[in-house]
Amino acid sequence: MGKSHSVNMLVYKSALLAAGICLLAILQGCAADDGDKAKCAAQTGKDCHSCLQYAQCYYCTATKKCTFYPLKSIIPKSDVCSLPDIRWGTCWVNFLALIISVVGIVLLFIVAVSCWCHCWCKKRRVRSVERDERQFASERAARAEVQAERRAERQSRTDAIRQKYGLPSPTGEPPYQPL
């Protein structure tokens, strides 16, 4: 268990490192330039759909302002627009509901993966116990067989000694047969 567990942990840590590097590369690739901010600013005063045609923009329903989405802070500042008034990605879902939905889905995924891991480990442990029980039973049968052979060997030596010296057998039979 020790070697496979350490290999699994190494794979897990490598996957986390790779995911972190990919996320960092994506965030750096999504860095804003002045052209992106100008595209968003040009959509101010228009409707939500025209603002959200650019993925890097979000729309504030209270001020009808189209603003560049701040990827580095993840959640836009509340002084620009409150979370229930922000629309990002789609006009019919506000940003707060979107955040709550994403968090709920992530938590559901984590719970599902945790349950799967628990069941997998439990099933593996049960198989290990069954394998150990079978191995123990076969070892016990082998020991009983060796013990029976030794007992028969001892009995035959004891009977040979009794016969040699003319001693009665413990079963009550006479030590010799009359002719």
List the helices and strands and how they pair.
Blueprint: H1 2-29, H2 34-42, H3 48-51, E1 57-60, E2 65-68, E3 86-87, H4 95-165
Antiparallel strand pairs: 1-2, 1-3
Give a structural overview.
- This protein has 179 residues and is mainly alpha-helical.
- 63% of the residues lie in helices and 6% in strands.
- The protein contains 4 helices and 3 strands, in the order αααβββα.
- It has helices spanning 2-29, 34-42, 48-51, 95-165, and strands at residues 57-60, 65-68, 86-87.
- A 3-stranded antiparallel β-sheet has the order 2-1-3, with helices on one face.
- Strand 1 and strand 2 form a beta hairpin.
- 8% of the residues are buried.
Task: Tell me briefly what this model is.
The protein is mostly helical and 179 residues long. It is built from four helices and three strands, in the order αααβββα.
Number of E-type strands: 3
Number of helices: 4
The stretches of 5 or more residues where confidence is low (pLDDT under 50) are: none
Order of helices and strands: HHHEEEH
First and last CA, distance: 71 Å
Largest sheet: 3 strands, antiparallel
Strand order of the largest sheet: 2-1-3
In percent, how much strand structure appears in the residues?
A: 5-15%
Query: What do the pLDDT scores average to?
Result: 79
Helix content percent band: 55-70%
**Rg value:** 40 Å
Protein structure class = mainly alpha
Q: Which term fits the overall shape?
A: rod-shaped
